[in-house]
Amino acid sequence: MKKFSGLHSYLTDSGIVSENEVIEPSMVDFSNLITAHTEHYAKAVWTGDLTKKEVRRMGLPWSKSLAIRSRLAVQGTINAGLMALQDGLAGNLAGGTHHSMPDHGEGFCVYNDVAVAIKVLQQSMWVNRVLVVDCDVHQGNGTAHIFLNDPNVFTFSIHGERNYPFKKPPSDLDVGLPDKTKDKDYHKALISALDNINAEFKPDLVFYLGGIDPLETDHFGRLSLTLEGLRERDRIVIEYFTQKEYPLVLLLSGGYAPNLKETIIAHAQMYEVAKEIGF
């Protein structure tokens, strides 16, 4: 949990992001949460009425602070979506909780912030067609499940094939990579997938889940990207969509580097890249 406040401090102290560019969200309304989640689950997280099995599946011990943080993170992604539509690029210094299903959380994910943000922005008529580019090392099963039959949302996941989740509902495009995949092969597969998507789907908004767990040093990743290779991955994605003038939202998603400092530095790279590109 310390990576979130640590990343904020790192970005502002180093001048990558200025304090006046950071907007603190309020807690998301339940009326918005239930666009992607069942009312029972959305409220049970808030009241603490989850069963022991549900808490165990979520992977995090319940607390009121967890419930508050989860609602803040979802609103942060909604806000980032609106800001990206106006400014071209925005980010949430959290988010990307892509394992959460409509009626339960799993894999350290409480609410599915991307799914809620997409549903809210669609209902508000801000967007129609949305692309999710999920580069977390774990397949985005919750997002894939929620939008399985929605032709206006294209879900793309590039991940470790043999990694969690072991039951993977199909995304619109899944690229499963073998263990120990290195920088060059990863980048090649990513660019090929983005080109294939661009040939058939023109989004109003793109959500980028830039998980840092493809790193070779990650505790659970099983892939073998270097820190420089991860930075190039971020550059590929950010340049690809900003050059086409598609509004882009940056989200953290997962990451379990050997220590807190390395985790923060790896997450910060996408914002460093965005600033280098001109945002």
Automatic annotation (TrEMBL):
Coiled coil: none annotated. InterPro entries: HDAC_classIV (IPR044150), HDACs (IPR000286), His_deacetylse_dom (IPR023801), His_deacetylse_dom_sf (IPR037138), Ureohydrolase_dom_sf (IPR023696). Keywords: Hydrolase. CDD domains: HDAC_classIV. Gene3D superfamilies: Histone deacetylase domain (3.40.800.20). Residues 3-263 form the Histone deacetylase domain. Belongs to the histone deacetylase family. This is Histone deacetylase. It comes from Gracilimonas halophila. The lineage of its organism: Bacteria, Pseudomonadati, Balneolota, Balneolia, Balneolales.
